[in-house]
Design brief:
Length: about 60
């Protein structure tokens, strides 16, 4: 399986989000998800949140 994650942060309005996708060994999608983040004030925090949530979902789906 391969997990891809991305966190994004906009300093102009403090909006943030994370997205993740888990694929099987043939490239088929197992799941994809997006999450709007509240109380996020840094790009690094958005990236870390995406990794944490992605890993939790990957464990649940494997």
């Amino acid at each position: 399986m391969a997990l891809s994650v991305d966190g994004s942060y906009n300093a102009t309005d403090d909006s943030a989000g994370s997205r993740m996708i888990l694929r099987d060994d043939k490239g088929g999608v197992i799941f994809g998800a997006y999450c709007k983040l509240f109380h996020c004030n840094k790009a690094l925090a958005a990236e870390l949140h995406a990794m944490l949530e992605g890993l939790k979902l990957a464990i649940d789906h494997s």
